[in-house]
């Protein structure tokens, strides 16, 4: 094997980092503002004028086919499915792609679950009546399905985009469509209020943005260190 063949590949220095920092700062600010606003309204019990009409709209449009579809979505997008999936993807990114930022993908759901679990205990909000029929007993705000899916898919989409494994259009769809469907399924099935889902999305988006910040930091340091070693 030649010396050139043995030489480790130098990854290019990250480009456009400033614009990505601005994007993440904007997302973090918006997500935090969303968390605080929805949380304040729920705590003050001021969400009924918003939640009740949305619940009535979905209940009036429930069908057997719609229930089967959204039940599949909600079961496929639950934390017990999304979290193991993120771990598998994180391991694959680390072993097959040699990406040290895989920890950011694996950290997101754990953080999201910890945050929303603590918040649920603080608000102790009761669920809509449909939750009783489906034997869902724990507290309602925020939606764990929504928080976890937003955190996992948002983080994954950002990392895959920055590593140029998928185009930005696909990344945007990955970050938005699955959490949107999963959150909608919770309202359609009448196991969550709309503000539960919005709060969950806000928490998950905040976690994803923070995970992306960690990713950018580790990515920059790793590639700068690699470049320095190659030039030494």
Report on this model:
With 232 residues, the chain is mainly α. The protein has one domain: Vanadium-containing Chloroperoxidase, domain 1, CATH 1.20.144. It contains 10 helices and no strands. The protein has helices at residues 3-6, 17-43, 48-60, 64-76, 79-96, 102-123, 130-133, 144-162, 168-188, 194-231. The longest helix is centred in the C-terminal third of the chain and has 38 residues, at 194-231. Mean pLDDT is 81; it is low at 1-14.
Short descriptors:
disordered N terminus, 10 helices, Vanadium-containing Chloroperoxidase, domain 1, mainly alpha, 232 residues
Helix content: over 70%
Strand portion, in percent?
under 5%
Report the top-level CATH class.
Mainly Alpha
In total, the number of domains comes to: 1
- Main beta sheet: none
Structural class: mainly alpha
The CATH architecture term is: Up-down Bundle
- Tally the helices: 10
Short synopsis of the structure:
This protein is mainly α and 232 residues long.
Lay out the secondary structure:
Blueprint: H1 3-6, H2 17-43, H3 48-60, H4 64-76, H5 79-96, H6 102-123, H7 130-133, H8 144-162, H9 168-188, H10 194-231
């Amino acid at each position: 094997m030649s010396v050139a063949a043995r030489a480790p590949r130098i990854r290019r220095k990250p480009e456009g980092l400033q614009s990505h920092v601005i994007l993440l700062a904007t997302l973090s600010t918006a997500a935090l503002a969303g968390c605080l606003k929805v949380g304040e309204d729920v705590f003050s019990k001021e969400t009924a004028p918003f939640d009740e009409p949305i619940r009535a709209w979905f209940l009036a449009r429930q069908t057997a086919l719609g229930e089967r579809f959204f039940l599949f979505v909600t079961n496929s997008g639950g934390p017990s499915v999304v979290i193991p999936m993120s771990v598998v993807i994180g391991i694959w990114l680390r072993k097959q792609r040699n990406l040290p930022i895989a920890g950011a993908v694996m950290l997101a759901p754990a953080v999201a679950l910890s945050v929303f679990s603590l918040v649920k205990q603080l608000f102790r909000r009761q669920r809509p009546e449909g939750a009783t029929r489906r034997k869902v007993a724990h507290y309602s705000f925020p939606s764990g399905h929504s928080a976890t899916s937003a955190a996992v898919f948002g983080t994954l989409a950002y990392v895959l985009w920055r590593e140029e494994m998928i185009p930005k259009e696909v990344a945007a769809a990955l970050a938005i469509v699955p959490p949107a469907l999963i959150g909608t399924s919770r309202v359609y099935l009448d196991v969550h209020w709309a503000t539960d889902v919005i709060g969950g999305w806000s928490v998950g988006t905040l976690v994803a943005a923070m995970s992306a910040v960690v990713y950018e930091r580790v990515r920059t340091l790793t590639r700068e260190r690699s470049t320095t070693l190659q030039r030494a």
